[in-house]
Amino acid sequence: MATTLRLSRRDFMKVGLASVAIAAGLSKYGNYSVFNKVEASEVSKIKEGKVKLVKTVCTFCAVGCGILGKVKNGHLVGIEPWVDNPINAGKLCCKGASINHTITSPKRLRYPLIKRNGKWERISWDEALDIIARKMIEIRRKYGPDAVFFAGSAKVSNEVAYLMRKFMAFWGSNNIDHQARICHSTTVAGLGNTWGYGAMTNNFNDMRNAKCIIFFSNPAEAHPVSFYHIYEAKRRGAVLICCDPRFSRTAAVSDLYLQFRPGTDIALVWGICYEIIKNGWYDEEFIRNRTYGFERAKQIIMQYPPELVEDITGVPADKIRKAAYLLATNKPATLQYAMGGTQHEYGSQNIRAYAILQLLLGNAGKPGGGVNAFRGHDNVQGATDMCVLSHSLPSYYGLSEKAWRHWAKVWGVDYEWLKGRFTSKEMMEKPGFTMSRFACGVLAGSDAFPGCKDLTIDQPSNIKMIFMWGHSTPSLGDLRYVKKAFESVELLVFVDPFVESGAALADRPDGIILLPAATEWESSGSVTNSGRQVQWRNKVIEPLYESKDDLWILLSLVKALDKYDAGLYAKFTKNFGGKPPEEITPEEVLDKEISVGCRAIGLVGWKSWRLKRQQEYDYTFSKEDCQAKSGPCKGEYWGLPWPCWNERHPGTPILYRNDIPVWEGGHDFRVKWGTTAPDGESLVAANGHDQMPGWTTNIETDYSEWLDKNMVPSGRGRARFYAWNMKDPVPVHREPIYSPRLDLVDKYPTYEDSVYWQHGKYHYRVPILAKTLQIAWKRYNLCQCFPLIWTSGRQVEHQGGGAATRSNRILAELQPEMYVEINPEDAEARGIRDGDMVVVLSPRGLEYGASPAKVVCRARVTNAVPKGVVFMPFHWGGYFEGKSYLNRFPVIADMDTRPFVAGDSANIANSPGWDPETQMQNTKTGICEVVKLSEYKPPEGLEDYFKNVKRLRQRG
Amino acid sequence: MYKFVIDIHSNLCIKCKGCEAICKNYNDVPEGVFRIKVITINEGKPGQLNVPMPCMHCNDPPCMKVCPMNAIYKRSDGIVLVNKDKCIGCGYCSYACPFGAPQFEGSGAFGTKGKMDKCTFCVQPYKQKDENGNIIEREPRPMCAIVCPTGTLLGGDAAKISQELRERISGYAARGMLENLFMV
C-alpha cells in the first residue's frame, strides 16, 4: 500500500505541472486528444535532459507529417509527436508512429556488396564506385550514352533529385525516370493541360474549409493523417462522398458511397456533370470569365445521362443524381483522388474529367475547393518538380533547345558541350525510356523472353546497364518481363538503405552491385509534400554502418567518372566551387541552382534559410490556413507552397485563387497555350493579361515589378474545358483494353495504335499496342477464361515496394501477409474458403506469346470487394509466382537482409495498357481468374491469342 | 481522474493503426502483445465500424478484484497498473475483463502465458524496471490518443474529455446535424 501512496503523491505534482502548462496559455496545442495540452511542458523537460529532439519529416507518404526524432548519445531511441507542425499537429499513422524501427532496422544493408560467382562479397566504397564508373565508360564507348538507364527516386531530397537529373543531362542521355511516371504522371498531363500546373491545387489543411468532399481514392488507408483535416471539415458540416470500386475504409466513413466498375471513372463523372448541367447547377459566371470551351465539353457530357451511366458503371442512377445534388448544394466542394484515378490507360483523361467537374461547379481556385491529388511518396512532388523524368528538364522545361539553353546557362556550361555529350541533337530532344517500359529497351531483339525477337526500339543500342536508385521493383508492371531485363543487362546497380527486392529477384550469378544509401533521417535536405509545401528535413543521426548520404554517393560517382572523363566533376560542381563531395551541402544546391533555375513553377523564393526559419518558428503558423500570424515569418505560408515568386513572397497555398493580391498568395489560371485558341476565342481571362515575357528563362528578375501591379508572371488566363492538344480534347468513356463488357467495346473502343505514335511509330522509344489488343481480346473472347476484374492498391501498414516497411518489425507484425480479397459469392463458386492458398491467373504475357502470369497468395474472403472484382495489395516481394527467392537476398556474417515478411508480387499480373500522354502503366483495371492452389493446372490452348495479336499487327 | 474514451458516435476510426504502432514503439511491447488493438465489426459492409480498444482503466476494475496475488492496483489518479513482480500469470484477470485488455506474452494453453501486461496509460513500458532495477514511472501521456489523426481516441482527464465531447455534440447541434450523429 505504501507504493500506492508514494505514486499518488508524485502524480499529484505531475497533474499540478500539467495544469500550470495549460494556464500558461498552451492550450492551443492540438484539438482532440486532450493530452496534447501537456505535450509542450513535457517536450521542454526532455530537452533539458540528455535526450535531443530533432525536427524532421516522415519518410513515407506525401502528407509531409512532422516528427521529432529522439536522439540519445547519437542513437535514435524513439520518436515524439511534433505537435507544432501545422500540417499534422503530431498526428501519425502506423508508419510514422514506428518510423524509428525502419531507420534502425537490423535488416539494413550495411556495406557495399557485389555479386560474384553466385556469392555476395563485401567491397569498399572506392572499389564499388570505380567498378561502376569503369563499366559506365566502357558502355559509353561501346554503345553510346543511351545504353544506361537511370531509375531515380521520389524518396530523396529535392537537391539529390535535382542533381540526378543534372547528372543524366551531363552524362548525355534522357534515359532517366522515377516513381512519378507510374504514380501521378497523368496528373501532370491532365491538370497541367486544364489550368496550367499539374499539382494538387490546395493543401491538406485547406480541406477543412470544404462543405463537400468527393473521394476518388482511399485516403483512409493511403494518407491516414489527411483525415485530421477531413474530419475537421466533417465536424463543420461537410458531406463526404466516396467513389471507389472497393468498399474501403474511406467508404465506410462516407455519407454516400458510389461503387463503380474499375475503369469507368469518366462515365461516372460525366453522369454527375450531366445532372449538374441539366439542372442548371453550374457556375455560369465562373465559366464565362475564367474558362474556355464549355460548349464543346457540354456536347460530350450530355451524351451520358445517369441511366446510361448506370449501365456502364453499375452505379444506380439515383445515387448519381444524389451525388450531383450534394455537390451542387454544398459549396465549396473539393475533389480528392490518387492512384485509383491515375493508373489507367485513360489516366490523363480521368484527371481531366475530375478537373472539368470542378470547373463546372466553379470550385477551382477557392479555399475548400480545387482538385486535390494526393501523392504517394514523401518527396514525389519534389522529385517530379525536379523532373527526374525522361521527357523534361527540372521544373517542367521540356527538352527543347530553349530549355537546354536555359539550364546550360544556370549550370554555367556551354550548350554546345552539353550537346556533344549526347549521341545527337535529335537524341537530346527525344524523350527517353520510362519506368513503365524500360525493360523493352533491354530485351528488344533478343531471345531472352517470348516476343522480344521482333521488338524494335527507337534508339541505336539496347540498354546495357541499369541504376535503381531508391526505386522499388514490386511497383513495376509486368514483373516477369522486368525480371528478365534485370537478368539480361551487363550491370545492375541498386542504391538503397535496404536490399531492394529487385536485387534478389534477378536470378544471376554476377553483375549486381548494392550500395547502402543512408535513410532519409540520416541526411538532410528539402522535401516537398503533396500540397507543394517544402519542409527542411534535418539529419537526425549520422549514417549507420557504412551507409552514405545520397548526395555524397551521387557526387562521388561523378568524381569517379571524372577519372575516365576528365573535367566532368569540375563542370558538374561549377556553381559549388568544385569542392569535394563531402563538402557540398544541400543548402548550396537549393540556393545556388534550384531556386535560381526553377522558374516555371516559381521556386525563386525557396531559400534554405527561409525554410529553416519557418521550422524554428513553427508555432507561429496557424493550423487553419497554414499562415504565420506573428513572429519573423508573419504572413508567410507554411512550406512556401510554389509558386513562391521571390524571397519576400509568402507562397501560394491555393493555386488559381484570384480574389487576393498576388503578394499575399493570389494566383490565376496560367496562359500556357498562347492568348488565342485555334478557334479564335481568347484564352486570357476577363480582366486578365498575358504572361510576363521571358518569365521562365530570365534568371535575373525577381518579378516584384509585376507583383506590385498585382499581375501574375504566368498570366491570368482561362482554364480549358476543351484541350485541343490532347488525344481526347474532352474526355470520353473508353472501355479498358481487356474489358469484361464485350458488348460495350464497340461503342466505347480504346485508342487506335497510331495514337501512340510520338516519334515515328514509337512512344517514349517503344512501340505500344492498344486497339490491336482489344480487338484480339474480343475475337478470342478471353473473358470466358478470365472472368474476374483485377485491381490493386495500398495497405495502410506498407508503402511502395515495401522494402522499408517490411523490414520494420512493428509494421511487419501489424500486416504480415500478402492476400487477394475476393467476394464471398465468387469464393463459394470456386470452392475457396477464407485463408486458402490460391493462384491468381492473369492473361499478362499472352499478348507477346508468353504463358499466362500467376500470383500465389492467400485468399481473404470479404464483402469489401463486389462480386466479380478481386483486389491485391502491391507492396510485396520475396516470392515470385509462388516460389521464394529469399535465398538470393544477401546473408553474410553480421548481416541478414531478408525482410521480416515476404509475399508474392501483385504486379506480375497487371494487364497491358499505357496512357498515350505519359505512358502511365495500368495497374488498376486488369482481368484474372482465381483458383485454389491445390486444384491449379497450367491453362492450355491460350497460345492462339498471341497468333491473333500477331496477325492483327501484321495487317496494321 | 484519467480516462480513455472512444468516440464511436460519429464513426470516426479509419483503422490507420497509428495507436497500435506508437504503443508498441513507445512502450517496447514485444511481438504478440497488443496493449491497444483496433477491432472491426461488419467489415466490408455498410455500418462497418472500427473501434480502438485499450484498457479502459475502470473505476471498479474487475481484474483487480479477481487477482489472487493483489498484483493489480489502481492509482489515485485512476490509472490501473500491474505489479509484475507479484503477477503469477494465472489469467484470472483475462476472464474478468470485459474488454480483453490483459495480454500475455507467448502462446499455448498452459505454461507459457508469462506475466500479465496491459495498457498503462504510457506510465510504464513493457519492462517495468530500468537497468538499475527501479520501477519506471513516466508522465501519464497516452501516446495513442496524441497521435490519433481522427480524434476517435480521447485520453486524459475525464472532465476535459467530457468537455471535448460536449463541444463536438454542440458543434453538430449548432449545424443542425444531430441526425448525422446517430447514423453510425
Description:
The complex is a heterodimer of chains A (956) and B (184). Chain A is an alpha/beta fold. Chain A folds into 4 domains: 2-103, Single Sheet (N-terminal domain of TfIIb); 113-183 and 380-513 and 551-561, Rossmann fold; 185-373, Dimethylsulfoxide Reductase, domain 2 (3-Layer(aba) Sandwich); 742-955, Barwin-like endoglucanases. Helices cover 32% and strands 14% of the residues of chain A. Chain A has a 7-stranded mixed β-sheet with strand order 5-4-16-15-14-6-7, with helices on one face. Chain B is of the alpha+beta class and 184 residues long. Chain B has a single domain (2-181), classed as Alpha-Beta Plaits. Chain B has helices at 18-27, 62-66, 92-96, 143-147, 158-174, 178-181; strands at 2-6, 37-41, 49-53, 72-74, 80-82, 103-104, 116-117, 153-157. Chain B has a two-stranded antiparallel sheet. In chain B, strands 2-3 form a two-stranded antiparallel ribbon. Chain B has a two-stranded antiparallel ribbon with strand order 4-5. Chain B starts with a strand and ends with a helix. The chains are: A alpha/beta (956), B alpha+beta (184). Chains A and B meet through α1, α2, β3, α3 and α9 of A and α1, α4, β8 and α5 of B.
